[in-house]
Design goal:
alpha+beta, OB fold (Dihydrolipoamide Acetyltransferase, E2P), Hypothetical protein af1432, 5-stranded mixed β-barrel, 7 strands, 20% strand, elongated
């Protein structure tokens, strides 16, 4: 199957892609045509269908995996697929989102190993018990490996959550060496768990979507919910300190009058923003 990254002008194409945009537009003469965006794990490409546009449009919807046939053209210095055949692909092709969604650049098994190593740097018995229980949960680990951090911002690809978690936890570990007055056990536990809510926040198919939990609660509340379900072994001071870090890693809650309640929470906020900002700049360029 040909990949988006391998498309070249003049090439005849038969392939299977996810449809992430579908618009019915009109030419200057008033004839309808379809304007699409097609995607696989290697990238996306615009596509158009001028012949039998309305008939073709009835065969699929945005978010479907579709089979297409056409030719690669160059239009305004951009590659465009000119399509003459479109049909919805079998549902079985949607079972593996990794075929159509972007994936992490780094090896996930390697990142898993780094995550376990960083958890091993937590020496507080109660925090370590919590981390061990989280890492021993196979279904949670699978979701941790699969989830992105965002749908269109930083780490917006399968495995992005694990990559970001390891990055922030690594920065946290180094910061604790520079500032030994920080509670390194709290700092590392918070860094490892700060984005756990993303494991419940997304749906996967031809494109990334938000789960009902993700849409209604958001990943901060979901993450705190996961920790509440797993933190029976934490005493109240530890539980509150960890919850504060997780819930304020995008900034202090309104009820705190714009202030952090611990240096660890402030540090996590800064480290999370650092990794997200640098990754966003590398992926999308510097923005005003």
């Amino acid at each position: 199957m040909i990949a988006v990254s391998a498309l070249r002008p003049g090439q005849d194409v038969r392939g299977t892609f996810a449809c992430t945009r579908k618009d019915r537009l009109l030419t200057r003469t008033g004839s309808p045509y379809l304007a699409l965006e097609l995607r696989d794990r290697t990238g996306s490409v615009p596509a158009r269908a001028f012949q039998n546009a309305d008939a073709l449009a009835g065969r699929f919807e945005r978010g479907d995996v579709i089979r297409v046939a056409g030719k690669v053209e160059r239009f305004r210095d951009q590659l465009v697929l000119e399509l003459d055949q479109i049909e919805r692909a079998s549902a079985s092709l949607e079972a593996d989102p990794g075929r159509f969604l972007p994936v992490a650049y780094r090896d996930l098994d390697e990142l898993d190993g780094f995550l376990e190593h960083l958890a091993g740097e937590v020496y507080d018995r109660r925090y370590r018990t919590l981390l061990d229980a989280l890492l021993a949960d196979d279904s949670l680990r699978e979701a941790w490996r699969r989830a992105p951090c965002t749908r269109a911002g930083h780490h917006a690809y399968l495995g992005g959550l694990l990559e970001h978690t390891v990055s922030v936890a690594t920065l946290a570990h180094e910061l604790c060496q520079l500032h030994p007055r920080l509670n390194s056990d709290l700092m590392l536990t918070a860094a490892i768990t700060h984005d756990l809510g993303h494991t419940r926040a997304f749906t996967y198919g031809a494109e990334l979507g938000l789960s009902e939990e993700g849409r209604l609660l958001g990943h901060l509340a979901l993450g705190d919910q996961i920790l509440s379900e797993r933190s029976a072994g934490l005493d109240q001071p530890r539980r509150l300190a960890l919850s504060h870090c997780v819930l304020s890693h995008h900034g202090p809650a309104p009820g705190l009058a714009g202030r952090f309640a611990s240096p660890e929470a402030l540090a996590l906020f800064r480290l999370n923003a650092l990794d997200a900002g640098v990754k966003g700049a590398l992926e999308h360029g510097l923005r005003e």
